[in-house]
Amino acid sequence: MRYAGAAIFFLCMCPLVMPAGQAQALSGEPAWQLASVSERYKAAGQRLFKSMEALRNAARGRDAALVDTLQKQWEDKLDSLIVSTMLKDNVSLAEAAARCTDERSAWAEGVLAGRIRLESQPQMPQAQGAPQYAPAPSYRGSASSLLEACRKGDLDQVRLNVGSRVDINCRDAEGNTPLIIATRGGQADIVEYLLSMGADWRVKNNQGFPAAAYLSDKNADRLLAAFLRSGLDVGQAFGSDGRTILHNAARSGYARLAALLLSLRQDPDVRDKDGETPLHYLAYSNDNEKIDRLEIARLFAQAGAQVDAKNRSGRTPLYLAVHGKCQKAAQALIQCGANVDQKAGRVSMLYYAVDQELYDVAGELIRHGASQEVPGDDWKGMARKTPGKLMELKKRGYLR
User: Fold this and answer.
1) How far apart are CA 229 and CA 48, in angstroms?
2) Do residues 105 and 188 share a domain?
3) Fewest beta carbons within 10 Å, which of 44, 95, 161, 282?
4) What integer pLDDT is reported at residue 8 of this predicted model?
């Protein structure tokens, strides 16, 4: 059996856990019991089984790293499920594996989404030479303790709190759930655990954002895989402005996350309610932010994005970048094929860039063939009113 090694290793690494049959012989009660599983947990297990193969098929051949991550997590969950089944029902490894790999078994789906806990045992007589087994300590968790554990990335503390039946979807003052906090921190182990325990990824905080809105490049492979297994539609809009995860990835410069989403055939020109694409969001990035805008722009351009797409107001990403004085974003867009002769209102983009004192952007436009003689451009007027602008352009070698 492919899972035999993992199961045996798990049992060997847990010296405080005796087989269910042995514990029953000593005390008359099994030491391990399956925790009660609510309908919410069962539904989560069913979604996981149904979505796994579909996700693998969607990703196969386009992102080997994502497929490998999914495969590993899938096997790890089955290993855990098999061991849990052995302990619960005191059956052989082969029998446990046979039960757990039957995807049509509703019982197996419930176990996968459930959890195993060590029940507190009364003091029991020990056979001569038998090791001493201490009862599991009782623990009373709280919402504040669970939320703080997620902030600190303390998986053990998260397990203790969830195991003591603290509301897994509790909120802090800003409306953030444990899942939102863990996702924002890139805590892959905790996110995977919370989702496997039935945490609701649809819950939004006070800003109107669900957990998936906080996906970033940190552990992007594992976090995205975990949300997809739980039924997330990565192309679905969230918030009142209709943005998607792909919009956020472009705005924040999450190249790895953007690459994963595009590898899953997400629309590179997806629009929000204002008709803005992810490249429009890239144009809003601040020059002080440590973002590789050229890498992001290239990712979208290579995926077939329209670099000169217009929003509902008729504005292109390049116009927004120049208008907002986002110099690095403007240069990246020009290098990825933006039309250098597009208009910025009644003047050319070159004239507008100089007027905005974005001299390196103006130089980029000139290097890519921008015309310097466009009707509407009042270069003489600029020379009279603000001669320093043209002098700076010449000083940098962009004009002769």
Assistant:
1) 5
2) no
3) 95
4) 41
- In angstroms, rounded to a whole number, what is the distance separating the alpha carbons of residues 303 and 207? 31
Do 12 and 90 belong together in one domain?
Answer: yes
Q: What is the DSSP letter of 211?
A: G
Q: Tokens 């004192």 — which residue?
A: 357
Task: Tell me the C-alpha distance between 8 and 352, whole Å.
Answer: 69
Place of tokens 């990703």: 59
Q: How far apart are CA 392 and CA 363, in angstroms?
A: 11
Cα–Cα distance for residue pair 215/236, rounded to 1 Å: 14
43 within domain boundaries: yes
Q: Does the reported pTM lie above 0.70?
A: no
Confidence of residue 164 (pLDDT cuts 50, 70, 90): confident
Give the H/E segment covering residue 366.
helix 359-367
Tell me the per-residue pLDDT of 268-304, one tens digit each, with 9 for 90 and over.
999 999 999 999 999 998 776 788 999 999 999 999 9
Which residues on neighbouring strands pair with residue 325, listed in sequence order? Answer: none
Angle ∠(312,313,314) on CA atoms, nearest 5 = 90
Per residue in 138-166, is it b (16+ CB within 10 Å) or e — as a string?
eeebebebbbbbbeebbbebbbbbbbeeb
Last residue in a domain, options 116, 132, 162 = 116
Q: Which domain holds residue 50?
A: 4-116
Burial code (b: 16+ CB inside 10 Å, e: under 16) for 15-38 equals eebbebeebeebeeebbbebeebe
Provide the number of structural domains found in the chain.
2
In 3-state terms, what secondary structure has residue 171?
Answer: coil
Which are the contacts of 211, defined by CB distance < 8 A and separation ≥ 6?
177, 179, 180, 182, 183, 191, 201, 203, 227
Distance between CA atoms of 365 and 296, rounded to whole angstroms?
19
